[in-house]
Amino acid sequence: MSDNETSPKPAAARRRRPRLTRRRGRSYPPCVACRAEETFAWTCKKCDFVMCQSCMNDNLWGMTCNQISWTCPDCGYDGNSFGTR
Ligand SMILES: [Zn+2]
Ligand SMILES: [Zn+2]
User: Fold this and answer.
1) Which residues surround ligand 2, an ion (CB under 5 A)?
2) Which of 29, 37, 45, 40 is nearest to 80 (CA)?
3) Distance separating alpha carbons of residues 30 and 38, to the nearest angstrom
């Protein structure tokens, strides 16, 4: 019996822990679609429409045509921009 079968140790699987650090300070009102209070949400500049990131992703096809700015379904203002930073 040969015992030369080396079993390489698999690289330690690094677990990605979601950061649960809550940022204080700026708070967003609950999302109009799912009512979730997120640490970040898209808000209309003209009215108080709020949409969280996941709902925005879901509705992206109906909210934007250029991925740069989005149109508020409430007031129709189309100057809301993505990634101002
Ligand atoms: Zn939502
Ligand atoms: Zn609006």
Assistant:
1) 44, 46-47, 49, 72, 74-75, 77
2) 45
3) 7
**Which two tokens mark 60?**
């992206």
- Interval between CA 40 and ligand 2 midpoint (Å): 17
Using the mean position of ligand 2's atoms as its centre, give its distance from the Cα of residue 43 in Å: 8
Q: pLDDT by residue for the chain (85 residues), tens digit each?
A: 666 666 666 665 566 665 555 555 667 899 999 999 999 999 999 999 999 999 999 999 999 989 999 999 999 999 999 975 5
- Domain borders along the chain are 25-77
